[in-house]
Amino acid sequence: MSLFEIIYRTAFGKDFNFELEYKPIKGKATTVSAEQIAESQLETIAMLEAELEEISRFKNDGKTDQKLVDKLIKNYQQQINDVKQADLSFGYVKHNKDGSSEIIINKDKPKFGVAEHEFLHKVLARTLKGDNILQKNLGEAFVQHVNSKGGFLKNIYKD
Predict the structure, then answer these.
(1) Is 99 found in the same domain as 143?
(2) 123 and 59, same structural domain?
(3) Whose C-alpha in 56, 105, 114, 115 is 20 to 30 A from the C-alpha of 122?
(4) Residue pair 101/118 in contact by the 8 Å Cβ criterion
(5) Could you tell me where the DSSP H helices lie in 57-86?
(6) 66 and 118: one domain?
(7) How far apart are CA 59 and CA 120, in angstroms?
(8) Count of the separate structural domains present in the chain
(9) For residues 149-156, average pLDDT
(10) Model pTM?
(11) Phi–psi pair at 14, nearest 5 degrees
């Protein structure tokens, strides 16, 4: 029994039931096994690589904004790397081709707060989308706050 499960049992007088506890957010999050995540990774990676290949055709074509092409290429490469690690994580946000997204929770690695954590990623991504100044300011404020509380980021983000 994990420390979380002991604390949960002590606080609520019952065992933690992953499916039951995440029922209120059903429709906003999906719980799947690591094996199911691994299977879906292949399809998602193939789709992302095809899109990356299509975008790469515009690299150095003399017509297209190269900063935009480079940004898109970098974004797709990051998405591919994230998907390759998905079955090892507690959860992640899956971005669908139609622009929608879905929170995926790895039920083989239950951990309290995963859906909420991933939801925050989703909210922040939508809120900060395209605003580099706001992203930088919020990031710096977050690091400053965590460091002021004796957090683990003290020496990580130094210039």
Answers:
(1) no
(2) yes
(3) 56
(4) no
(5) 66-85
(6) yes
(7) 34
(8) 2
(9) 58
(10) 0.51
(11) -150, 165
